[in-house]
Amino acid sequence: MTLYKGRINASPNELMDALNKSLPVDIRFFPYDIKTNRAWAKELTRIGIFSKDELSKINSALDEIIKRYEAGEFSVIPDDEDIHTLTERLLTEKLGAIGARIHTGRSRNDQVATDLYQYLRDTLKTLSGDIKKLLKTIADIAKEHSDTIMAGTTHMQPAQPITLGHFLLSLGFALKRDNERIDDALKRIDRCPLGAGAIAGCGFLIDRHLIAKDLGFSKPTDNSIDTISDRDVAQEAAFICSTTLIHLSRYAEQFIIWSNPAFGYVKWDAQWSTGSSMMPQKRNPDAMELVRAKSARGIGDTVTLLAMTKGVPLSYAKDLQEDKEAVFDALDTTSLTVKVFTEALKSATFNKERMKAVLTSDMLATDLADALVEKNVPFRKAHERTAKFVTYLEDNNSELLKATQSEFDEHFPEFKDAPLKLDYQASIKRRRSAGGTAPVSVLEQINNLI
């Protein structure tokens, strides 16, 4: 179908066609474009452009077209400019003048925005469901390891004892916020662009509230210029994706480190690992490495969408056509990555004994300083005295749990009447306030997560 033959009479240019055509990308909008056409035809019937009999013929033709799509007929991409042109051409070929009237009062500008909003609404809801499955997996494993002690680190250095369940839940709550961002974004997507036209609105007395209701939106968009010229819904979706991917990437990095035999904390099932083409002994955590890499794509897609609109004058320009490939990639990548992460994590075996073996007694230094505070020593002074004691022990090739009672008595006379006993388990149990690492707090966090 030639859209511009009344104005553009130049013969086709292969390079321009290659640059201009978006059908290979936006053909995934096909089901949504069918819905958009149904809603528009219904409204055109209400205002007298179509008769009820013509509407019935349009709906029957759209039924036939979507069946052809679902049967895979368009796996070989037709020679149409975009999905909207394809749908209109198929209707016109089937119905003649009736199909040729389907574009009355609308523009591809509001049509593409309507398809995009429908797509984002459905795809983000699906992604939210995938994230919830991952949250359930995290909660189950965290419960199993609510009292598994491991070395917590800051600056990649030994810090304090924590529980593995507590560590895993830190990812859970980050992902829960990602899902809250999806819920919030869906509120802004819950507006129907159809009827905004090319820039000024529709020249026919349509009821955009009825159209919105037909398409499952709560209301129409508020301003026709804003409707067809902004892509912040796609940008926000990509940002949510990149944030989710970054969260997964950080924990994938941690798990990659943990799977090194030098740590030996975690082992992945064979189906989530690969070997080496040369070294027979290798077992590589490639699933986690690829999760880590996918975050770069999400970031790139987000930057693409932001940069695409930064200098586009109002209202519409063809630049905005470039939104779909980036947002599709962001959502596809995130959906796959979340699913892989979920299944790989289910397969993981955490080595409790190895985690326990890596604990170092200097991690109990804070507990020693806290004990001094309970003896009315100001914390800053308790911190200094404990630090000096740790240094003294290091200089003498010793450590906190190997310190003699006489060494404690010499440095901390406050404990002479009641000798202090430092213990990893006790350190964990002390931190039972909300959000802490104690098993009782971990179980509370699990309840808050799901």
The rounded distance between the terminal residues' Cα atoms is: 52 Å
Average residue pLDDT? 94
CATH superfamily of the largest domain: Fumarase/aspartase (Central domain)
Tell me roughly what share of residues is in helical segments: 55-70%
Spell out the helices and strands N to C.
HHHHHHHEEHHHHEHHEHHHHHH
Strand content: under 5%
CATH architecture of the largest domain: Up-down Bundle
Kindly provide the name of the CATH class of the largest domain: Mainly Alpha
Count of alpha/pi helices: 19
**Net shape:** elongated
Largest sheet: 2 strands, antiparallel
Q: How many discrete domains?
A: 3
Please explain how this structure is put together.
This protein is mainly α and 450 residues long. It has three domains: 14-100, Orthogonal Bundle (Fumarase C, Chain B, domain 1), CATH 1.10.275; 108-357, Up-down Bundle (Fumarase C, Chain A, domain 2); 362-419, Ribonucleotide Reductase Protein R1, domain 1 (Orthogonal Bundle), CATH 1.10.40. 61% of the residues lie in helices and 4% in strands. The strands form two sheets. It has a two-stranded antiparallel ribbon with strand order 1-2. The chain has a two-stranded antiparallel ribbon with strand order 3-4. A hairpin with a 2-residue loop joins strand 1 (149-154) and strand 2 (157-163). The protein is elongated, with a radius of gyration of 31 Å. The mean pLDDT is 94.
Keywords:
single chain, 450 residues, mainly alpha, Fumarase C, Chain B, domain 1, Fumarase C, Chain A, domain 2, Ribonucleotide Reductase Protein R1, domain 1, 3 domains, two-stranded antiparallel sheet, two-stranded antiparallel ribbon, 19 helices, 4 strands, 61% helix, 4% strand, elongated
